[in-house]
Amino acid sequence: MSNEPASRGAVSVELRASHADRDRVVDVLRTAAGDGRLTVDELDERVEAALTARTLKGLDILTADLPVPGVGGTLGAHDVVRIEQRGASTLRGEGWMVPRQLEIDSEWGDVTLDLADAVITHDTLRIRLDMRGGTLKLLTRPGVVVETDALTLQFAESKGRPGDGSGGPVVLRVAIQGRLSFGRVVVRPRRRRIRRAPTP
Predict the structure, then answer these.
(1) Residue 158 CB: number of other CB atoms within 10 A?
(2) Given this model, what pLDDT does residue 119 score?
(3) Residues 141 and 161: beta-carbon distance below 8 Å
(4) Are 154 and 181 a contacting pair, CB within 8 Å?
(5) pLDDT value at residue 65
């Protein structure tokens, strides 16, 4: 019997998957769904398979037809913003810097994102939502398109027009994924303030 070690490729195929390996694949799958590469049903099926996969080979199969970010495509800490709140509300108002990814963990509070006068430096904003008992409100302008196909609603609703309806160039595509329970998503243009003439 040979004592020589097996080749690196042969060993890696049979290696057991760790929790970190499974989480990495789930992130890739959710990003792909946010980009429109997977339907909601496909996402649910693959995520379930990823969470129960025992080997790296089993995980690799789930992302074989999807682009997987390499080292140069990973998000830096400055590209990810997290909002975590309990019984409070958050407003990102005029002039705020839109990140590449926004993670929202909220219970019984509202989150308002004003995209009408935000500083937009990327073409896509991915929102990972875990909200219970609150409203996610997005104030938009022409060129901002909101996609909610990958969002799971539980006793919740999505109101408003996801697309901007202008037919013009897309400035920012907002892909919302995750879960919303006992709440709602509202997408609408920001109302213009009416300035009244001073009283003589």
Answers:
(1) 16
(2) 87
(3) no
(4) yes
(5) 84
DSSP state of 78: G
Q: Per the structure, how many domains does the chain have?
A: 2
The reply to whether 35 falls in a domain is: yes
Q: What is the DSSP string of 103-159?
A: EEEEES--EEEE-SS-B--SSEEEEEEEEESSEEEEEE-TTEEEEEEEEEEES-EEE
Could you list the mean pLDDT of each consecutive 10-residue stretch along the chain, which spans 200 residues? 42 66 83 82 91 86 73 51 92 88 94 92 90 96 91 90 68 93 93 57
pTM over 0.85: no
**Tokens 């002039």 sit on residue:** 95
Same domain, 66 and 90: no
Q: Which domain holds residue 30?
A: 9-71
Please report, in angstroms and rounded to a whole number, the separation of the first and last CA atoms in the chain.
102
Counting other chains too, the contacts that 24-28 makes at CB distance below 8 Å and 24 or more residues apart are: 25/50, 25/53, 25/59, 25/62, 25/63, 26/50, 26/51, 28/63, 28/66, 28/68, 28/69
Go through the chain and tell me how many residues it has.
Answer: 200
pLDDT value at position 180?
Answer: 95
Which pLDDT score is estimated for 160? 77
CB 138 within 8 A of CB 174: yes
Asked if residue 150 lies in contact with residue 185, where contact means CB atoms within 8 angstroms, the answer is no
Query: CA-to-CA distance for 88 and 109, rounded, in angstroms?
Result: 5
Q: Are residues 57 and 82 in the same domain?
A: no
SS3 content of the chain, % helix, strand, coil (to 5): 25, 35, 40
